[in-house]
Amino acid sequence: MSQKRAAEIIMISNVQLSRYESGDRNPDFETLKLLADLYEVTIDYLLGVSKDAQVPDKVENNIYKEWPQGVQVLQRANEKLSEKNKNKVLKVIQAFIDEEDED
User: Fold this and answer.
1) According to the model, what pLDDT value does residue 47 have?
2) Which DSSP helix (H) or strand (E) runs through 37?
3) Rounded mean pLDDT of the chain?
4) Three-class secondary structure of residue 54 per DSSP
5) C-beta separation of 30 from 45 below 8 A
6) What are the domain boundaries of the chain?
7) Which pTM was predicted?
8) Are 72 and 44 in contact (CB under 8 A)?
């Protein structure tokens, strides 16, 4: 797909898209989402946070769309935390879920 066509699809100018691609400008979050959807890659890949360009399967993709910040934090936690600390994080999350279930 040409840069011109990509810019048309996400409704920005070709010049603006060129500036994003060259790193002269940074797109806002909405534009990042549009670009990620258009190119079928993750926002993390576009930002250079992840080398994995593949979008997760459908269920994971829905989670990513609904709560991208949570997914990003969990990805970083998976990369950085020890198994012991990962288990602590899971227990905290489960406690919040249990609390919601009680309400």
Assistant:
1) 87
2) helix 29-39
3) 88
4) coil
5) no
6) 1-55, 57-103
7) 0.50
8) yes
pLDDT at 40: 85
**Burial class of 82 by CB neighbour count within 10 A (0 to 12, 13 to 18, 19+):** exposed
CB 39 within 8 A of CB 54: no
Measured distance CA(1)–CA(49) in Å, rounded: 24
CB contact at 8 A, 15 and 24: no
Q: What is the DSSP letter of 51?
A: S
Q: For residue 7, what are its two tokens?
A: 């810019």
**C-alpha distances in Å from residue 90, one per residue of 23, 65, 82, 94:** 37, 21, 12, 6
Tokens at 76, concatenated? 């970083």
Give me the CATH code for the 1-55 domain, please: 1.10.260.40
pLDDT in tens, 42-55: 888 888 887 777 66
36 alpha carbon, distance to own chain's centre: 8
The mean per-residue pLDDT over the stretch 14-33 comes to: 93
Distance of alpha carbon 53 from alpha carbon 75, whole angstroms: 14
